[in-house]
Write a structure and sequence with these properties.
The chain is of the alpha/beta class. It has helices at 5-12, 17-32, 51-67, 95-110, 139-149, 158-167, 196-213, 229-243, 271-279, 301-311, 326-335, 337-343, 371-381, 390-398; strands at residues 38-40, 43-46, 75-78, 114-117, 135-136, 169-171, 185-190, 219-222, 249-250, 266-270, 291-294, 319-322, 347-348, 365-368, 384-387. Helix 2 packs across helix 6.
Length: 399
């Protein structure tokens, strides 16, 4: 790669041990993917935050980077941690795990990382502009950033995202290049989609078809007249989970779609396929559900407002977690939504989510509106699942 004088200084260690290690990671990554140069990044989001995923080896790496003088050079936030930082006791988290999780967050904070732990950084202050280069790691957020925001990022691993944060740079390859952002397949949706679980089912069926074909296209999606932020984040999470996709264009909705020509090769998705995809994620009966979860990806303030409306004056009968970013919950606190929700017996699980929290063995079956949550609930925790609409999930908690 062609490195600038400053980048060579980073690589030679003139800006500290951590910056040198970070630059070595990026230089190796760029060499592997034949990048010609580095590009500056304005935003970073780091995954691998839960101690359950990092373990002691991962924590040692973070500590060494902090001890080596590592400091962020771009706005940097974190993916969900393994617990609610302020209310882990109320959610039944083991004190030993809590201690180790706090060590992880302390290491990140020492490097100037903002310890807002969320898979939807774009809803809580980490919102890059169209056309900017960033380095994000969470799969659903990467898909949302590339597609809905029109910024440029590959799906980073935890170490490469941290390296980008400590240098303000990332190698220019993949979706940082215009030619790789062009659509390669038209997907025509011949169905009515109204709610988050519908969009999750669409992402599942598309992702599975792409996996079966052995090709990971950049889809140009037509036939969807409107999609809310909440529906788009659900779709991004599902498409990334089931197909590994990091970019799509949606006619009339995403910013780059209007500048692009739909490819001639076309795949049509029908209503019955979406309905079947949704049904396939319900493998438990209502009587088996003992855990209800909303917020994968993290809930928006609009979803929390709706939740408060549905729960006001009522009482849940099952363990019910609402996962969201702490800044979003703080807004809910001020609006009075939090009190209404907690008075019902539901619990906020801020800073974390049901995917990364250490909850294996605690529950039998989970109800949710998230196709992504269904995937990980079974694959990681062996929970049976029930996929329903947002409002129906709330009703499930009241039965």
């Amino acid at each position: 790669m062609q490195l600038t004088p400053f980048e060579k200084e980073l690589l030679s260690g003139q800006h500290g041990r951590a910056a040198r290690k970070a630059m070595e990671i990026l230089d190796a990554l760029g060499t592997i993917y034949h990048a010609r140069r580095m590009v500056p990044v304005t935003s970073v989001q780091i995954s691998g935050v839960s101690y359950a995923n990092l373990g002691e080896a991962g924590l040692q790496f973070l500590t060494e980077m902090a001890d080596g003088g590592g400091k962020t050079r771009a706005l940097t936030t974190l993916n969900p941690a393994g617990m609610d930082i302020e209310n882990w006791q109320g959610l039944g988290i083991d004190p030993d795990f809590a201690r180790d999780q706090e060590r992880v967050l302390h290491a990140f904070a020492r490097m100037g990382v903002i310890t807002t732990c969320s898979c939807t950084p774009y809803l809580s202050g980490n919102l890059p502009h169209f056309g900017e280069h960033i380095a994000w790691a969470e799969s659903s957020a990467v898909c949302y950033a590339n597609s809905v925001l029109g910024v440029c990022t590959n799906r980073e691993g935890g170490p490469s995202a941290l390296a980008a944060a400590l240098t303000g740079l990332t190698p220019e390859y993949g979706f940082h290049l215009d030619e790789n952002r062009l659509p390669t397949l038209t997907v025509r949706v011949n169905a009515q989609l109204h709610e988050t679980h519908h969009f999750g089912a669409l992402g599942k069926i598309m992702g599975e078809k792409f996996e079966q074909s052995g090709v990971k296209p950049v889809p140009y999606i037509s036939g969807i007249p409107e999609a809310s932020v909440e529906c788009l984040k659900s779709f991004c999470a599902s498409l990334a989970t089931y197909g590994g996709n990091a970019l799509f264009h949606m006619e009339g909705i995403t910013p780059e779609a209007a500048t692009l020509r739909p490819p001639d090769e076309t795949l049509t998705i029908h209503q019955d396929e979406i309905e079947q995809a949704a049904r396939s994620l319900t493998i438990a009966s209502s009587s088996e559900v003992d855990f209800v979860s909303l917020g994968c990806p993290h809930l928006s303030i609009r979803e929390i407002a709706r939740l408060a409306e549905l729960l006001e004056g009522k009482h849940v009968t099952k363990e019910f977690w609402i996962t969201t970013a702490r800044p979003t919950k703080q807004t809910a606190d001020r609006m009075g939504y939090t009190k209404i929700i907690e008075d019902s017996g539901a619990k906020f699980a801020t800073d974390t989510c049901c995917v990364v929290a250490p909850i294996k063995g605690r529950f039998n079956a989970m109800a949710t509106d998230s196709a992504k949550a269904c995937y990980y609930a079974y694959a990681k925790n062996r929970f049976k699942t029930v996929l329903k609409s947002f409002d129906e999930v709330v009703q499930e908690a009241l039965k």
